[in-house]
Write a structure and sequence with these properties.
This protein is an alpha/beta fold. The chain is built from six helices and seven strands, in the order E-H-E-H-E-E-H-E-E-H-E-H-H.
Length: 190
């Protein structure tokens, strides 16, 4: 079996692949994540996932490399990671009581093949009071997450319901990713 590399520094993606009992190493890349307004959110996350994978693949062409990216989309607008507390507060206020999409793109590369795909999950937030938002901001959880919340942590208390793949909201559509990795010869160790 070829070496498998996760081209992401996300601890959540790492934990998900560990949960699937897949052997891998982590190698991050530094790419420009500036939004291209000509791209749809689906195109954007797949493009970023592919750029991350390609950057790592350049020096690891003997391996299978996986890149991934996640965005939150509210009323057609992409919400990335907040710049600061005020920005996070604005995002959470905008999400309050509304449904939004979480779109995760994945790219898998080897010297023989390439596969990119995305998964969209719909998330409905509870109506949030200012006090709830401030308490959540005090956890420091929102600041490195798209849309300023993490469904796998304290942010779970903000979510009324989801329709779709929970793991895609966390950062990697695990079941679909494992099935795609099978085509690259990467399988769980169980």
């Amino acid at each position: 079996m070829k070496p498998f590399i996760l081209a992401s520094g996300s601890p959540r993606r790492k934990e998900l692949l560990e949960q699937a009992n897949i052997s891998f190493t982590v190698q991050t890349s530094d790419i420009d994540e500036t939004l291209d307004p000509a791209q749809s959110p689906e195109q954007f996350v797949q493009s970023l996932a592919l750029q991350k994978a390609e950057a790592v693949f350049k020096s690891n062409q003997h391996a299978v490399v996986l890149g991934s990216d996640t965005v939150v989309v509210l009323e057609g607008q992409i919400l990335g990671k907040p710049n600061d507390r005020d920005h996070a507060r604005d995002m959470l206020t905008a999400l309050s009581g509304k449904q939004h999409s979480v779109i995760t793109g994945v790219a898998i590369l080897s010297c023989e093949q390439q596969k990119t795909f995305f998964v969209e999950t719909r998330v409905q937030f509870w109506e949030l009071s200012n006090a709830e938002i401030e308490r959540y901001l005090d956890t420091n959880e929102p600041f490195d997450k798209a849309g300023a919340y993490g469904i796998q942590g304290f942010g779970a208390t903000l979510v009324r319901e989801i329709a779709g793949d929970y793991f895609a909201v966390v950062g990697l559509p695990l079941a679909l990713t494992v099935r795609q990795l099978n085509h690259f010869g990467i399988t769980p160790n169980f």
